Amino acid sequence: MMPSVAEERRAPRVVGVEFPFGHAFGMPGDRSMQRQVLELALRVLAGAKAFGTRVDLDLEWPVPLREAYRLWQPKEASPIVKLLLESGRPRG
Amino acid sequence: MWAPFEKRLRESRIALLTSAGLYLKKTQPTFDVERERANPEWGDPTWRAIPAGVKPADLAAAHLHINDEDVLADPEIALPARLLEQLAAERMVGSTTPEHLSVMGYQERSLEGWREKTVPELVARLKDQAADGLILAPA
């Protein structure tokens, strides 16, 4: 998930998946997808030879991007998002 | 920080850490989302230990930045404890730790409480459980 963020945070080993927030291992109920992610994470954990190793898993999310983005959003905007919307300023 | 992984995977004990804000709904306090609502730049830096054999129905989630419907329907998408047990039974990994770890993914920018208290406590817990490796799952 967001492997570029993990790299910025200097994670020593990264498995990259383009899944929505809250779905690090895949779709609910999809054991095959979840297993592919966890197995790769374990192999990268044990097999990476250098800091910053990143391996991307090329699995397509089975929901169109726009709909997936809508679905992972909380039903109510988070407090920081509300604050930023009210103040009209970007965070930081 | 880099640490080489020196054991063979099939001889290693593996732990999971999720930042989906999972907790045991009958026995653990929720993450403090009310304080976050009052102070939106603050995030609860505490953590919860989740037994490896936890039943999905025993879990709740407290995370104001994601839709938690899917993770409550199938917690394996954030904390694949059952799948890891299966991989241990198949000898891909040696074993799982008796407990996995859960935090809430939205944190204060300074990360002060996180650095000074949370991380040392998490590391101590992992050492107590003789974990050889940790899989982090962000949310």
Task: Show the helix and strand layout.
The complex is a heterodimer of chains A (92) and B (139).
Chain A: H1 3-8, E1 13-16, H2 31-47, E2 53-56, H3 65-72, H4 79-87
Parallel strand pairs in A: 1-2
Chain B: E1 13-18, E2 22-24, H1 33-38, E3 47-51, E4 59-61, H2 69-73, H3 81-89, E5 95-96, E6 99-103, H4 112-128, E7 133-137
Overview of this protein structure:
Chain A has helices at residues 3-8, 31-47, 65-72, 79-87, and strands at 13-16, 53-56. Chain A has 92 residues and is mostly helical. In chain A, strand 1 (13-16), helix 2 (31-47) and strand 2 form a beta-alpha-beta unit. A two-stranded parallel sheet of chain A has the order 1-2. The longest helix of chain B is centred in the C-terminal third of the chain and has 17 residues, at 112-128. Chain B is globular, with a radius of gyration of 15 Å. The model of chain B has no long low-confidence stretch (mean pLDDT 95). Classes of the chains: A mainly alpha (92), B alpha/beta (139). The A-B interface holds A 1-2, 5-6, 10-12, 21-29, 31, 34-35, 38-39, 41-43, 45-48, 50-51, 71-76, 78-80, 82-83, 92 and B 1-3, 5, 7-9, 12, 14, 18, 20, 36-37, 40-41, 63-68, 70-71, 73-74, 76-78, 80, 83-84, 87, 92-93, 106, 109, 133, 135-139.
How would you sum up this structure in a few lines?
The complex is a heterodimer of chains A (92) and B (139). Chain A has 92 residues and is mainly alpha-helical. Chain A has 4 helices and 2 strands; from the N terminus they run αβαβαα.
Which spans of chain A have pLDDT < 50 for at least 5 consecutive residues? none
Q: Tally the beta strands of chain A.
A: 2
| Helix content estimate of chain A | 40-55%
Secondary structure: number of strands of chain B: 7
**CA(first)-CA(last) distance of chain B:** 21 Å
